[in-house]
Design a protein that fits this description.
Pfam families: Peptidase_M24. One of its GO terms (biological process) is proteolysis. The chain contains five helices and 17 strands. The protein is of the alpha+beta class. It has a single domain, classed as Creatinase/methionine aminopeptidase superfamily (Creatine Amidinohydrolase, Alpha-Beta Complex), CATH 3.90.230.10. The strands form five sheets. Strands 10-9-11-16-17 form a five-stranded antiparallel sheet. Strand 9 and strand 10 form a beta hairpin. It is globular and about 45 Å long. The protein binds magnesium ion (2 copies).
Length: 282
């Protein structure tokens, strides 16, 4: 295959990929349940790994050269690639993005969620800062689903980025990262083609059944400029503004789209958006 080629998946291969996607979703669900003030990001990493291994799968993040963890845990102005650490204790009201992936039977899932950390009693502080963080996370999540909805109707993949950008612009004064983008996914976690979170001059490849992409808007409450910390991984906003990251691995099928890393395959959310659910089982 040349660099610009990518593999379209057969229905049987998509069903195999759904297994990896569902395990990824369950790992993130377990992380979300355990996420409370006082917990360290390394403990969340342990929980994600335990969940993935309980299904006979393994972490694909650990296969990335030089990375030894199951999740990336990015707190507040950290946008992506935050490294879990025992001394990184979460506080109530923190905005935490968790990115995770599982591999099973040679297929990959990749997904990310943003959590506003609750206190020990499950409450989230009611402050202006927390309200702003909620709005940022909600706009980023909404833009992901706007991108997924666009994928269902798109002729060309570039329409996804345009939909994400339009959604973000309509929902606040935010920065969409341009240094990092989504990607194809399948036998490897990162494959062609790139999936931009913004409008470009590139039409992108034709959208046809069998295309599987990880759509992952990374959005800040300020500037879209970033820098990498001295640890060589953690990406932070240059202006220290808060950040949110949401991601799903999404397949195009003959009948619609199938959100491989959503617990329900995306069914309920797609229905609310008027987008055909294209799940191949259940
Ligand atoms: Mg990811
Ligand atoms: Mg990804």
């Amino acid at each position: 295959m040349s660099r610009s080629d990518f593999e379209l998946k057969t229905p049987q291969q998509l069903i195999a990929m759904r297994k990896a996607g569902l395990i990824t979703a369950k790992a993130l669900e377990a992380v979300k349940s355990a996420c409370v003030a006082g917990v360290s990001t390394l403990e969340l990493d342990r929980i994600a790994n335990e969940t993935i291994e309980s299904f006979g799968a393994h972490s694909n993040f650990q296969l990335v050269a030089g990375y030894n963890h199951t999740i990336c845990a990015s707190v507040n102005h950290e946008v992506v690639h935050g490294i879990p650490a025992p001394e990184r204790i979460l506080e109530a009201g923190d905005i935490l993005s968790v990115d995770c992936g599982a591999e099973i039977d040679g297929w990959n899932g990749d997904s990310a969620i943003t959590i506003i950390v609750p206190d020990q009693s499950g409450q989230v502080p009611d402050t202006d800062l927390v309200r702003a963080r909620r709005a940022l996370s909600s706009a980023t999540d909404g833009s992901l689903w706007a991108g997924i909805a666009a994928l269902a109707k798109a002729e060309r993949l570039g329409e996804v980025g345009a939909a994400i950008e339009d959604y973000i612009e309509a929902n606040g004064k935010y920065g969409i990262l341009e240094d990092y983008v989504g990607h194809g996914i399948g036998r490897s976690m990162h494959e062609e083609p790139p999936v931009y979170n913004f409008r470009t001059k590139l039409l992108g490849p034709k959208v046809t059944p069998g295309l599987v992409v990880a759509i992952e808007p990374m959005v800040t409450a300020g500037s879209n400029k970033t820098k990498v910390l001295a640890d060589g991984w953690t990406v932070v906003s240059k202006d220290s503004s808060d950040a949110s990251h949401w991601e799903h691995s999404v397949a195009v099928t003959e009948t619609g789209v199938w959100v491989l890393t959503a617990l329900d395959g995306g069914k309920s959310r797609l229905e609310s958006l008027g987008v055909p659910f294209g799940g191949l089982e259940g």
